[in-house]
Please model this.
Amino acid sequence: SQELEQSPQSLIVQEGKNLTINCTSSKTLYGLYWYKQKYGEGLIFLMMLQKGGEEKSHEKITAKLDEKKQQSSLHITASQPSHAGIYLCGALSGGSNYKLTFGKGTLLTVNP
Amino acid sequence: KAGVTQTPRYLIKTRGQQVTLSCSPISGHRSVSWYQQTPGQGLQFLFEYFSETQRNKGNFPGRFSGRQFSNSRSEMNVSTLELGDSALYLCASSHGQGQASTFYGYTFGSGTRLTVV
Model:
């Protein structure tokens, strides 16, 4: 089954700093999702990447999927306290049994 | 449009009891997936329903079951509750099914926090 490894597990940054979160898959990614979660709440959809080399941006968040479609990165520019939360990458496993598998998440703290 | 609605938000049950959680997907979405989230295991896939049929199932014991109704609303049932079943249960809806969901994406509800004492 597909496994997603996220790094780092946790991250503390000063407001205004840039940061990057990585998501590495053991298999080729058919669809890679980035979600954000506030503790104890539901997941908020950020971005979805499908094609090798694809890059998407929304406000100060940019996500990329590498050419080999086995690694994705999420980059936040000029972080703000509102960016704090748990970032999760999720991917659809292939074969005949499609299901969305998630990494363990990256806990981001932004200090004002 | 309304998002994915999960009820109840919080639930406290005693070991050995059973519980039913409800999920109403976004209007027009026919796929509903359920996930269990715990601090130790993270988000784990339970099952997916599409047009009232279970299409995928995760590695959970038979105490975990679900169903989907003709209006796409879904329920999840856990029988003979154990302490380890304490978790945040999330459901997600999608317009498509399986691989098609790569094109439509998944929208999550706010979850049901289940505490077993």
Observations:
- Chain A touches chain B through 25 residues (CB under 8 Å).
- The CA atoms of residues 88 and 105 of chain A lie 5 Å apart.
